[in-house]
């Protein structure tokens, strides 16, 4: 239950991302600056925290052992996650981006067979490949139905072109974030805490943010002071606080497929927090009856998903497979 509570708290801070990204977009700010500035601002903030905890040297040692894996999985987990989310905010309201983002719950479950763990058995050391947690997936389908209903309600107000540009990037991000996060957990094997891992992935993803920033400077110039301030707020609330909370929650649940799926399911709380924030902050925000119905399905699916994963049968969904060393 502790991991679930931390996950819900993280969803509150993550909601800041969707609301402020839309606010920056509506104010004429570039989605490239919205994405790049978040991680550029995150770097010194996290660096101070890790240095204060005297754990920077250990992080550097870990990164030097597998530099290319750090760069690759950080590009997937941070770059291919956040840049598409910012791009989608240009074409969709914040509540719809947040709602579509809940596809990550299904994506996370579908990614399970890509991971395994090493176990000591009577037959020696074996690698265990995990199966898709189909029991939790049943409730995930309700979430998927809710997302589809929201998209359908929005399709009556925008063109198919804009709907696609506001949806497809979010689905890409929904696969990228859990994949990058889990691969980094697998690589670190518990040797780094959430602060170290977040800082390490921020450092390793800097090339993509610097390339995008350089392009934007040459093509359109520097960001406005207003966008820089809003991006800094996103960096603090979502990039640092929410990310560290979420990584802490996933670390607590990493050894149990069902619990890990439940922690990822708590991020559906972002939908509610984002909708409330958008209605309060962004003028002219509207949501149709169909959109509200879809949101209800998403939230109900999240709650049932958590209930089944927490209180249901706790038998292992793992499949033991002998894999040559």
TrEMBL record:
Keyword Transmembrane helix attributed: yes
Keywords of this entry: Membrane, Transmembrane, Transmembrane helix
Family annotation (InterPro entries): EmrE (IPR032713)
Pfam families according to UniProt: EmrE (PF13536)
Spans traversing the lipid bilayer: 31-50, 70-90, 96-115, 136-152, 158-177, 198-217, 229-249, 289-308
Keyword Transport attached: no
Name of the protein in its database record: Multidrug resistance efflux transporter family protein
Species for this entry: Fodinisporobacter ferrooxydans
